[in-house]
Amino acid sequence: MAKHGKKFRAVSEKAKGKETYELAEAFAFLKENQISKFNESIDIAMRLGVNPRHADQIVRGTVSLPHGTGKTKRVIVFAQGEKIKEAEEAGADLAGGDDLIEKVQGGWLEFDVAIATPDFMGKVGRLGRILGPRGLMPNPKTGTVTMDVADAVRDVKGGKIAFRVDKSGIIHASIGRISFSVEQLVENSIVLFETVNKLKPASAKGTYLLNISTSSTMGVGLKLDIPHIVGLLR
Q: What local confidence, expressed as pLDDT, does residue 7 receive?
């Protein structure tokens, strides 16, 4: 395991001054103590009181962040006929039918989100072994299987993100960049928290929001004050 540099260790020691951080406090700390020189991603990790081994406790969904993520996502659309043109006009990086399927089957994976029309999913299903493990398979639950391809493309380009609880009961999501203002990061994170909170499975018992932390790509992790967060939710 690579050892952390002197700057990281110094920031880590500084972070230990508080056990938990309120949202604005945490984002201000990450911005003031940036370790690298590039525009790092600001990420959230939420440990939920669910058991993902039970199908009725899998928490997944999408959320449109009011200030976007700071990253323009590359979007492809599997469709046919007029829907290809609609997708392209809405800003899709690439749209097509059998030709696009062949391109992906050939190993091309230079995209972040794949959208498909329902009538084309039979063919897109062939890509399950390629797209599935990478979390790129179009899915109705995340709004990526739809006839409204133009709206779907614009949503993704505008800051709509998909999230899903992993095997450990944790949701990971990027809510912006270190160049964002503290206010933008707070507003983006609250929208994410509200969305996840509303998706609490009826079968999940006990505490739902067990642990929430934030970090930048190269920075330290900060544990967030959950009662403070809950007080901000609608």
A: 81
